[in-house]
Design brief:
By secondary structure, the protein is an alpha/beta fold. 31% of the residues lie in helices and 13% in strands. A hairpin with a 2-residue loop joins strand 3 and strand 4.
Length: 214
């Protein structure tokens, strides 16, 4: 997929497949004008916990409009979610090889209040790209497009919590790597990029490369 221009939805600590696509593209446009949809990676990430995959969901404020563009979605303070999400990351990854190495980088996102979900997700995404050492040309969309030319790839609905089995259709194959609970749970594919970073550290890039080379 090298040289391709891709379109992705915004995502909270997006899954491994998302960053594999960012690594392999020439330019990425992150959608700002799609209608916000709950129960997607836009406001949800999935990490490993002792009992299996654990979804962490950011609450959002209800819009007065029937449909709300992603760029206008506001983060809610409901349920003390920042404290809960950070505690979940600490309790499940504190014994991972690289948690202490990245903890300070991650913690700041739970200490600062962001107004808009898109901005929050993008700041995380830029940090993750820096940590993994990938450098896609990345920017937000200026409009919602429905047609694309030959070298453009619309991945906005492909990377979805309910479409894990179809990821091979976009050239992604989950490459097993060490996970904290692997002995108990087996390998859990396509978790949040946080899982890969905490477990593999600088070798995360090698894992991503293998995910798109098969």
């Amino acid at each position: 997929m090298m040289g391709k221009i891709i379109y992705l939805t915004s995502a909270y600590w997006a899954p491994v497949a998302y960053y594999a696509q960012l690594m392999a593209c020439e330019r990425a446009y992150i959608e700002r004008y799609d209608n916000y949809v709950k129960q997607t990676y836009r406001n949800r990430c999935v990490i490993a916990a002792a009992d299996g995959p654990l979804a962490l969901t950011i609450p959002t404020e209800k819009s007065e409009a029937l449909k709300c563009p992603m760029k206008d979605v506001r983060i809610s303070d409901h349920g003390n979610w920042r404290h809960m999400h950070w505690n979940a990351l600490v309790s499940n990854y504190r014994n991972s090889p690289f948690f202490e190495y990245y903890a300070d980088d991650f913690r700041v996102f739970y200490e600062k209040k962001y107004s808009f979900l898109w901005d929050f997700n993008q700041e995380i995404c830029h940090l993750v790209c820096e940590l993994i050492d990938i450098h896609p040309q990345m920017e937000g969309t200026a409009e919602y497009r429905t047609s694309f030319i030959e070298n453009e790839l619309d991945l906005r609905e492909w990377i979805h919590p309910k479409r894990i089995s179809s990821l091979q259709n976009i050239g992604f194959t989950a490459e097993p790597y060490y996970q904290v609970f692997k002995d108990k749970l087996g390998f859990l594919p396509n978790l949040s990029i946080a899982d890969l970073l905490f477990n593999m550290g600088p070798e995360s890039l090698l894992v991503l490369q293998k995910c798109v080379q098969k």
